[in-house]
C-alpha cells in the first residue's frame, strides 16, 4: 500500500496486521482519485472508518486542505498517526479515536462542513445507511459536497439515503464505490 500521487507520492503506508482493516486496493484508490481530480484541491475532507488513513492521506497528498480521520480502533489510530508523520502531512490533519456516532454527535463542532466525506466501513455490517442519515441530520456535508461510499458488491445500498442521492457508481468486481450528492 502506497500513496499514488501528489506531494507524498511513492511513500509506503503501514497497515494493521491481520484482518482488522481492509485497505482500499491501490488500483481502486487510483481510479477513485482520477474521478475526484477536478474537485479535490483545497477541500476539507472527512475519512470515516479510516483504517490505515490511506484514503484521507491520498486526498491530502493530492491537494486537499485538511483531513479529519475517525476510527474506533486504537491500533488503527496509531497507524494513521504514523502514516501521517511518515508522509509529512500531520499538520494538515486531525485524528479521533471514536466511532462514527460519537464523532458526529459529540466531537464534530459544526464550525465547517466537509467538502468530501469518505465512508468505508467494514462490509456487510449495516453501517452505511445510519452513518449517512446522521451526516444529513447534523449537516456535516457542505451544500456542494460529495459523499464517497466504498461497499461490497452484495450490499444493497439504496439510490437515495435521506437527502443524498446516488449520482455515480463504479464497479470494481467485489467492491463498489457509490458517489452521493
Q: How does this structure look, described?
A:
The protein is of the alpha/beta class and 181 residues long. It has a single domain, classed as Vaccinia Virus protein VP39 (Rossmann fold). It is 28% helix and 28% strand. The protein has helices at residues 26-36, 54-61, 74-86, 100-107, 128-137, and strands at residues 44-48, 66-71, 93-97, 114-119, 141-152, 160-161, 164-172, 175-180. The chain has an eight-stranded mixed β-sheet with strand order 3-2-1-4-5-8-7-6. α5 links the parallel β4 and β5.
Strand count, sense and barrel status of the largest sheet are: 8 strands, mixed
Record field, number of beta strands: 8
Q: Structurally, how many domains make up the residues?
A: 1
Q: Give the SSE string.
A: HEHEHEHEHEEEE
Within the CATH hierarchy, at the fold level, what is the topology? Answer: Rossmann fold
Unreliable stretches (pLDDT < 50, length at least 5) are: none
How much of the sequence lies in strands comes to 25-35%
Tell me the helix content: 25-40%
User: What's the CATH class, please?
Assistant: Alpha Beta
Mean pLDDT: 94
**Rg, alpha carbons:** 15 Å
Helical stretch tally: 5
What is the overall shape?
Answer: globular
Q: Which structural class should the secondary elements be placed in?
A: alpha/beta
CATH architecture: 3-Layer(aba) Sandwich
Order of strands in the sheet with the most strands? 3-2-1-4-5-8-7-6
